[in-house]
Known about the structure:
binds adenosine-5'-triphosphate; binds magnesium ion
Amino acid sequence: MRKIALYNNKGGVAKTTSVINLAYCIQKAGFKVLVVDCDSQSNCFDFFLTEEPIENADSILPTDFEKISSTTWTRYIEVPESELTGYDYILFDLPPVMTEEVKQIIRHAGFVYVPTMLGEFEISGLQKVTLEIAHQNAQLGGIFVTMFQKQNDEELLQQFRAALASQLMQTIIPYSRTVRESQKAGLPIEAYFIDRKVPHNGSSWKIVNAYESLAAEILSVSA
Ligand SMILES: Nc1ncnc2c1ncn2[C@@H]1O[C@H](COP(=O)(O)OP(=O)(O)OP(=O)(O)O)[C@@H](O)[C@H]1O
Ligand SMILES: [Mg+2]
């Protein structure tokens, strides 16, 4: 089993969006995934709630996806270790703050990926984030760019590549209006496209392919 946290002390950089869509890609690759929402905003947990009310609502909940289960950090810490053994991947969606609890979760996960948007001040911010991850004795899996807009961001991307070198992952997640649409519909992006019968050859699928390739990068790392 591998435990992976998604963290950045910056808000709105697609941590939750990435956890949701990575969970989808990882289950599609045949693995059992547990998503742990560690943010009191509870976006990720609410997203995966099924329409049907569930009886034992105090522990791990099933979702509309057979191989994805969902819980919150508060519930997770009460779950006996024996109930976690069936999961291949546990994904932790963190809030954009470095509290003692967040440090504890990072230490618990031991492995962290950092989504970031491109911006003038981001590189120094990322250096602080990676130092903090190291302070918690956790490993940085990699930093990945989200909401990339080709026309605005190409030059900044070059600066990021130069400054972050091998810490920067290959995959770039593009900006796409369909992310919000899919979230409104309560579906991971690919499930939303399938539901809406969006043709596979359309440019909308770029973001789905990007999350698939991000998942492949993550899955290729052995525990
Ligand atoms: N690739 C994308 N293209 C366009 N919009 C996106 C993309 N990824 C995320 N968003 C939008 O950006 C907003 C922030 O995303 P999200 O909530 O995933 O970020 P977060 O890092 O989890 O935020 P917080 O720090 O508040 O937890 C959301 O409205 C989401 O729909
Ligand atoms: Mg979030």
